[in-house]
Design brief:
Blueprint (H helix, E strand, L loop, with lengths): L3 E10 L3 H4 L18 E4 L10 E6 L2 E11 L4 E8 L3 E12 L2 E12 L5 H12 L2 H15 L1
Antiparallel strand pairs: 1-7, 2-3, 3-4, 4-5, 5-6, 6-7
């Protein structure tokens, strides 16, 4: 049976929902996430929207990402990412306004696409479980400079 993991982390982004929400789009994430360089398949002209498809290099392979939810009203963003023969990942970001800040919850669900990929997925999940402080530092550093 293939391995499946679920990891969740939370942090506070030091800006309003209106400023924070767009930063979780694939194009806008470039401004705060070091090394993030999506190559858009659709729309061809990079734009953050529901249904966007992009690719990222990952350890000598190409991962394909699809945005399944980009809903400001629901304060929810979701991506499905497939690294062929290795892992299928669902990433869900839920945002909650807190006066002048935004509470961010990120859930990673990973499924190994083969029994041989179990150790890779386990290592990815371990990294996911520790990613909250890194995300918080990067996004809040950007927000401090942008305000």
């Amino acid at each position: 049976m293939s391995m499946h993991t679920q990891e969740l982390f939370e942090f506070v982004a030091n800006a309003t929902l209106e400023k924070v929400f767009p930063l979780f789009g694939a194009e806008m994430e470039r401004v705060w996430a070091q090394g993030w360089d999506p190559q858009f398949v659709w729309p061809r002209q990079a734009a953050d929207c529901e249904g966007m498809v992009f690719q990222l290099a990952h350890d000598g392979r190409t991962a394909t990402w699809i945005n399944t939810v980009f809903d400001y009203e629901a304060r929810r963003i979701q991506y499905v990412c497939v690294l062929p023969d290795i892992v299928a990942t669902v990433i869900t970001v839920q945002l909650a306004p807190r006066s002048d800040s935004t509470f961010v919850t990120v859930r990673y669900e990973r499924t190994a696409l083969s029994d041989q990929a179990g150790d890779i997925v386990r290592d990815m999940a371990r990294h996911d479980s520790m990613a909250g402080p890194e995300w918080a530092a990067q996004i809040n550093r950007y927000l401090a400079g942008a305000m």
